[in-house]
């Protein structure tokens, strides 16, 4: 099983982005496999989006809902999705997380609008 398969099978992954001074900022997020990348979804003006826009360096590890890792971390490179790819990520999340995913995404769309969230694509290091 590859790192991508292992991480995509998890309910939550710990996405760690890095501040300018190098400090790690870990966040538990939902994740889904999209081709040969791992995709996650988040609020468009969140700190992690700003940090990814600046550098793109991330690590990803399996974790529980509270962000406690329970497996090795894997380095990767993150990039932000355009609106069409963000819609695709939302559809993949709805399929994986079923009713909870649909309700969460609907609530987010009602609160923030269609452009209030963004997909993030993570290419894992080999």
TrEMBL record:
Taxonomy, superkingdom: Bacteria
Gene Ontology molecular function, alphabetical: coenzyme F420 binding; oxidoreductase activity, acting on the CH-CH group of donors
Protein name: Pyridoxamine 5'-phosphate oxidase N-terminal domain-containing protein
Annotated NCBIfam families: Rv2061_F420
A GO cellular-component term linked to this record: cytosol
Pfam family for this entry, one: PNPOx_N
Ranges for domain Pyridoxamine 5'-phosphate oxidase N-terminal: 6-89
Keywords: Oxidoreductase
């Amino acid at each position: 099983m590859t790192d991508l398969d292992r991480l995509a099978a998890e309910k939550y992954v710990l996405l760690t982005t890095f501040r300018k001074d190098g400090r790690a900022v870990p966040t538990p997020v939902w994740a889904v496999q999209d081709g040969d990348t791992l995709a996650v979804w988040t609020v468009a003006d969140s700190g992690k989006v700003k940090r990814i826009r600046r550098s793109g360096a991330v690590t990803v590890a399996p974790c529980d809902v509270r962000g406690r890792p329970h497996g090795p971390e894997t380095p990767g490179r993150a990039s932000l999705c355009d609106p069409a790819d963000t819609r695709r990520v939302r559809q993949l999340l709805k399929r994986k997380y079923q009713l909870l995913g649909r309700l969460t995404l609907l609530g987010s769309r009602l609160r923030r609008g269609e452009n209030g969230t963004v997909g993030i694509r993570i290419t894992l290091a080999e």
